[in-house]
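Input C-alpha cells:
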C-alpha cells in the first residue's frame, strides 16, 4: 500500500498562486500515473491533472494554461503549480496514483487525504 501525503494548500486571493506537493511512501518509478483531483462539497470529484511515468501530462479544460503538474522522481514527489487562481478553484485537492495503468477505467489505486485550497478576497 502506497501512502500519499499532500501539502501546500491554504487561503489565497484571486489571481494568486499556490503549489501543492504530494510525497509517496515508496519510489514513484513503480507508478504508472500520478494525479491531482479536486472536490467541492456537493459536487463530484474531478480530475485536474495527471502525469504519466514517461512524463506526458493531461489537464482538465478548466485549468489548462494555469496549472502545471510535474514530478521529481528522486524525491518521490509530484507537484501541482496553480497560477491565476479563481474562486471557482476552491476545493479539497487530493493527490492520487495508479500502479497498474488502468486508472481511466478502474480509478486510481492510492489516495491522499486531501488539502484545502480556498480562493477568496
Amino acid at each position: 500500500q502506497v501512502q500519499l501525503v499532500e501539502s501546500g494548500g491554504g487561503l489565497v486571493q484571486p489571481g494568486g498562486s499556490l503549489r501543492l506537493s504530494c510525497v509517496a511512501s515508496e519510489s514513484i518509478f513503480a507508478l504508472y500515473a500520478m494525479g491531482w483531483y479536486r472536490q467541492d462539497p456537493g459536487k463530484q470529484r474531478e480530475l485536474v491533472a495527471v502525469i504519466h511515468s514517461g512524463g506526458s501530462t493531461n489537464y482538465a479544460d478548466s485549468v489548462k494554461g494555469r496549472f502545471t503538474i510535474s514530478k521529481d522522481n528522486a524525491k518521490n514527489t509530484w507537484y501541482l503549480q496553480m497560477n491565476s487562481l479563481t474562486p471557482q478553484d476552491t476545493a479539497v485537492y487530493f493527490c492520487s496514483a495508479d500502479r497498474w495503468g488502468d486508472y481511466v477505467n478502474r480509478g486510481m489505486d492510492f489516495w491522499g487525504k486531501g488539502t484545502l485550497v480556498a480562493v477568496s478576497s
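The chain has one helix and eleven strands. The CA atoms of residues 41 and 91 lie 8 Å apart.
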